[in-house]
Design goal:
It is a single chain. The chain is α/β, with parallel strands linked by helices. The strands form two sheets. Strands 3, 4, 5, 6, 7 and 8 form a six-stranded mixed sheet that branches. A two-stranded antiparallel sheet has the order 1-2. Helix 1 crosses helix 7 (about 300-310) and helix 3 crosses helix 5. The chain has a domain at about 300-390. It is extended. A hairpin with a 4-residue loop joins strand 4 (about 240-250) and strand 5 (about 255-260). Helices cover about 45% and strands about 10% of the residues.
Length: about 475
């Protein structure tokens, strides 16, 4: 027996080594599967990912059909119209339509039913007889201009579209997401107006040129704002990868479509000397503005914590739960402050406790690779997490940018993913900026576009630019 003991110990050591190797392979495989699971969960939520998204999750979550009870909301038919243009008296029949025999006695009651319809209209054609002259000093041609004209090019095409048609087409294309072909078909069906797709393209480009001064003024307003919320999402220019950038200060919205997603493009949007607060996600180019301060979006971090907790095993989940608890506590302090339940001194005290707890978490580097990625990200954003507790005008998330970019995302899905040229991308950015800003200001975007088209030269919209 004594002679067999060394051999037994050596056998046990060999088995121990094999088990350790197998355990290491299993741990590596589990870590890889967790990474793939987290990536699969995050991919559909990235707007910069492929434009088509899997609808299976949405179909399983939302029941189709009309909502029942109070969840449906107030019926539109029960809302009284602003006016009644015509009243028609519908007499009661003298014989019962059910039994065809009994006479009918009037009860003295009248049931009112209001029917709302739109009139069938056709286009209105206006002919301008433009009187021409010649300057005796310089020899150049001189011509008159009516306030209703949308262009001075009297010799380039005998027929031009009016301001209301172009404004409607711009709204249908840039807000509704209708293609130029569908807009042409709609104009033909509703108004009997035959128009080519290329005509609509050129008309919207002309409208964009008229709106350039307004667009530049909106851009200047964004660059001079104390707080802005930027975001970006995938786009296409002639089938090639591009990016749609947006920045808003909750009063003004400015879009840019660029072929890159770096600091050069962010600088073109906000200006290199921007010195306000940037409320954004963790995208690195926003940290390259030397004079600016930042507020990291806590909603992005909280979503990441939820995804990690769902995907990870029980071991490393405690760290993610602690990080999530710190972020939620910060939002609770914000809510209590807005309700007037905390004084500035109490807010400062609570913030010090939060920062102490967060620093304690960040003093230990997690071993799990996915949790370590969260640790690295939190370490990078450490100084930009709680600025909203000191600045009531700063949001804890970048929801203003998310809200501003959402119509463009819907437009992208219905218009083929982008534009056919750089000129078309510029037109897209200018017109969407004016329309979104007008919507926030409670202005009529169609009327704003119509006034721009009737101006002799590109001009500012005084109702939009303050």
């Amino acid at each position: 027996m004594l002679q067999d003991e060394p051999a037994s110990r050596e056998q046990l050591r060999a088995e121990n080594r094999e088990l350790k190797k197998a355990l290491a392979k299993r741990d590596a495989r589990i870590a890889e599967l967790e990474r793939l699971l987290i990536e699969a969960q995050r991919r559909p939520k990235r707007q910069a990912a492929p434009f088509g998204r899997d609808r299976e999750e949405n179909r399983a979550r939302r029941k189709p059909g009309r909502k029942s009870g109070s969840a449906y909301g107030r019926r539109a038919g029960r809302q009284a119209p602003a006016r009644v243009d015509e009243t028609i008296l519908v007499p009661c029949p003298v014989a019962c339509p059910h039994c065809q025999a009994g006479p009918v006695e009037l009860t003295g009651q009248v049931a009112r039913q209001v029917q709302i319809d739109i009139p069938m209209v056709t286009y209105r054609a206006t002919q301008f007889d433009v009187v021409l002259g010649k300057c005796l000093a310089c020899g150049r041609r001189v011509q008159g201009r009516d306030p209703k004209q949308t262009t001075d090019a009297v010799n380039v095409g005998a027929i031009h579209l009016g301001a209301n048609v172009i404004a409607l087409a711009a709204n249908l294309n840039k807000v509704g997401g209708l293609s130029y072909g569908k807009i042409a078909a709609l104009l033909s069906a509703l108004f009997g107006l035959k128009v080519a797709k290329s005509t609509l393209v050129r008309a919207l480009q002309r409208l964009s040129q008229k709106a350039e001064p307004t667009y530049e003024a909106l851009s200047a307003d964004i660059r001079g704002s104390p707080v802005v919320y930027p975001d970006e999402t995938g786009w296409r220019i002639d089938g090639s990868r591009a990016w749609l950038w947006v920045a808003t200060n909750r009063k003004t919205v400015v879009f840019r479509i660029e072929r890159g997603r770096g600091f050069e493009q962010a600088k073109a949007l906000l200006g290199e000397e921007f010195s306000g607060v940037i409320g954004s996600d963790g995208w690195a180019p926003y940290r390259s503005f030397k004079k600016a301060e930042r507020q990291a979006c806590l909603a992005h971090l909280l979503r990441r914590c939820v995804e990690l907790r769902e995907a990870l095993a029980s071991g490393p989940r405690w760290y993610v739960s602690e990080v999530q608890s710190v972020l939620l506590s910060a939002l609770t302090i914000r809510d209590l402050t807005r309700e007037g339940l905390l004084t500035p001194a109490e807010v400062a005290e609570e913030r010090a406790v939060l920062e102490g707890g967060l620093d304690e978490l960040l003093s230990h580097t997690p071993r799990h690779p996915e949790v370590r990625r969260l640790f690295t990200h939190m370490t990078t954003l450490r100084g930009d997490l709680f600025r909203f507790l000191d600045r009531p005008d700063v949001e804890a998330t970048n929801w203003p940018a998310e809200q501003a970019i959402r119509p463009a995302v819907v437009n992208r899905k219905t218009s083929g993913g982008g534009n056919r040229s750089d000129k078309g991308a510029r037109t897209q950015a200018v017109l969407m900026s004016v329309l979104q800003t007008a919507k926030i200001a409670g202005l009529d975007g169609l009327a704003s576009f119509a006034s721009l088209l009737r101006s002799p030269q590109p001009a500012l919209l005084p109702t939009l630019v303050r």
